[in-house]
Amino acid sequence: MQVFRMLQMSHALLENRRQLLIKTLTALSLILLLAEAMLAYRGWRRLGEAYVSMAHTQEVKHAVQDVATVIDDAQTGQRGFLLAGKPIFLKPWEDAERVVGAKVERMTKLVADNPEQTANAKTLSDLITVLREHLSRTIGLAQTGKKQEALAIFMTEKGRITMFAIRDQVAKMHAEEDRLLAIRSAAASDARTFNERLAALFVVLDGLIIWVLLFFARRLHRLQNLVTVCGSSHMIKDGDEWLKLEDYLVRRFGVEVSHGISDEAAMKMRTEMAAARVERLRVEQERATASDTREAELEWHMTGR
Questions:
Q1: Which terminus of the chain, N or C, has less C-beta within 10 A?
Q2: Cα distance between the two ends of the chain
Q3: Phi, psi at residue 145, to the nearest 5°?
Q4: Nearest-angstrom CA–CA distance, 102 and 8
């Protein structure tokens, strides 16, 4: 009976431990999941911002190049018209005049977040204005029959010098965007590396949590449906071995066992000790009585003689 009580107490203790372990591991898992979500969000946000910055840089470079191409087309149209004198050569200049204002405006808006590029865009816009006025003046003179005057202005190379300044400014803006692109590419690479390492860390941590859950689930697994207990020695069968209850609890559950004595057992022990003491006194009394009887008989025989 005591064995079954001890087993029941062990069951209750282990069940409490199991419930506490499950709650603790569940809380830790939720905390870990929350931390993973926050870190993953941070990593992907950094990577997204880096990619957006890189795309913005490429967009600025294309916008600057579009402006340079349009201005180059405009100058080509002016030269062709002044040299050939045929209106058909004015088409590149006319096309450029229709779109150059919008392209310069778009470029200026794209670099508004960068003070240095904003200043560069302002300088480029001013140079383009000077060149457009030069081109429009020479073309206007040629269209009104003042070709020689237009050629004279053309030969001053003002347009060529201004165009060289425009190209230098375009190259300067490209160089700045290339510098920014290198920085943002490095940031994107760092963000990718961070995300990869974070994912590897999450795999390890999740695997560790699963391993801990399985380990303690096996460690604190409750007794099976039937436990065989020896009716004589109260030893418990575990596989092919018969173990003392203490050894069984240590092996099966890793429980530290200490010894004590219950009130019922103490009362039984005291009762047995008292009964043994009474029995010992009875035996001693019987021996004393038998000894007195033998002495009396011996004395009687001796007196009778």
A1: C
A2: 67
A3: 90, 5
A4: 87
Counting beta carbons within 10 angstroms of the beta carbon of residue 173, is it exposed (0 to 12), middle (13 to 18) or buried (19 or more)?
A: buried
In degrees, rounded to 5, the angle at the alpha carbon of residue 196 between the alpha carbons of residues 190 and 199 is 140
Give the model's confidence band at 8: pLDDT under 50 very low, under 70 low, under 90 confident, else very high: low
Buried b (16+ CB within 10 A) or exposed e, 58-71: eebbebbebbbebb
Give tens-digit pLDDT for 58-91: 999 999 999 999 999 998 998 888 888 888 888 9
**Spatial separation of the C-alpha atoms in residues 17 and 62, rounded to whole Å:** 66
CA distance 78 to 134: 10
pTM: 0.59
At 242 the three-state DSSP class reads strand
Q: Largest alpha-carbon pair distance within the chain?
A: 191
